[in-house]
Amino acid sequence: MNLEEYKSVFAVTVLGLIFVAALPPVSMVLPLPSGGERFSELWLLGPDHMAEGYPFNVRGGEVQGPIYVGVGNHMGSSEYYVVYVKFRNQTQPLPNATASESSPLSPLYEFQFFLADGETWETPVSFIVEDVGFNGNSSFVAEVSINDHVFPVNVFSSWDSEYEGFYYQLFFELWLYSGDLQVFQFHDRFVGIWLNMTRT
Amino acid sequence: MSGLRVIGVLFVLFAFVSSVFVLGTMALDVEEVALSAIESAELAVDLAYEAVLEAEGVGANVSGLLVELSDGVEALSGAYMSSRVGNFDDAAYFADLCYDLVAGIEAEANELRDVAAVDRNQHLFLTSFGSVFAVGGIFCGGFFGWRFFKRRYHRRVLKMKPEVASNES
Q: Maximum CA pair distance of chain B?
C-alpha cells in the first residue's frame, strides 16, 4: 500500500470510531424504531393448566372449572385491557376477528387490568349454569354464575341432531383501550369453550 | 258514614300512589348516583393512565403504578357488572372504591415523571460530555497518530532507497 491508501484506511477508521462514540447521546435524543410485530396474546387453559380437559358436558347447578384465561402484552408499551365474558347458543353471533367486529351480545362478567410490555396476566374462571330447563327438542338456560356473580341470560338452544346435544358457548373477547379515542376497542381476539347441556 | 268511607279510600289511594312515586324517584336517584360515580371513576382512571403513560415515556419505572391502577379498574369492573344487573347500590360502592384507589396515582405518576426526566437529563448530559470527550480524543489521537505513522513511513521508505554504487572500472 502506498501512503495515500494508508491515509484513506486511517480516515475511515477514525470516522467509524467517531460515529461509535457519538451514538449513545444521539440514540437518547432520537429513539431508534423498535422492530418486530406488536400484538397481544389471549389464551384459555383447562383446570390442569393445559389446553385440554375443558368442561364440556354440563349439568345445571354444577360448578365448572376453574378454567384459566390469560393475556400477554407485546404491544411495546403498557396497555389497558378488558376481557368480556359472553354466553350464547349456536345461532347467536360470534365475533368476527377478521372484520374487527365483536359479538353484539351483552357481556356478563368482565376483567379489567393494566399490563406492562412483555408481561402476562392470568386468572381462574369458575362458572355454574343455573336454572336449566328442557322441553322436547329445546333447552333453556336462565342464569349463569361466573366467579360467584349471577347473571340472567335467558338463552334457548335447539337439539343439534348432527352432534347430538344442546350446545351453548362461553367465550372471552379481548378489548384494548385506545388513548386517542378514550374508549375500549375490540382487539380482534376471542377464545371460547362449547358446553353440551345435559339433563340431571 | 259513606263520606268517611270515601275519605278513607281516597287516603289509602293517595298513600299507595305517593309511595310508588317516592320509591320510583328513589330508585332513579340511586341509579343516577351510581352512573355519576362510575363517570367520575372513569375520568379518574383516564387521567391516571395518561399520567402513567407520560411517566413511562420518559423512562420511569411504572410497574408499581400499574398494579395500583389494576386494583382500581378491578373495582370499576365490579361497578359495571353490578349496574348491568340493576344493582345500583353496589355499582356506586364499587365506583367510589375505584375512585379512591385511583385518585392519588396521577400525582404519583407526575412525581415519577419529573424525577425520571431529571435523571434522564443528567444521564444525557454525562453521556454527551463523555461522547464529546471521546470524539475529541479520537480526533486528536487520529491526527497525531497519522503524523507519527507518516513520519515512520517516510523513514522506512528512505531506508529502502537504493544506494548509488560507485562504478569502478
A: 172
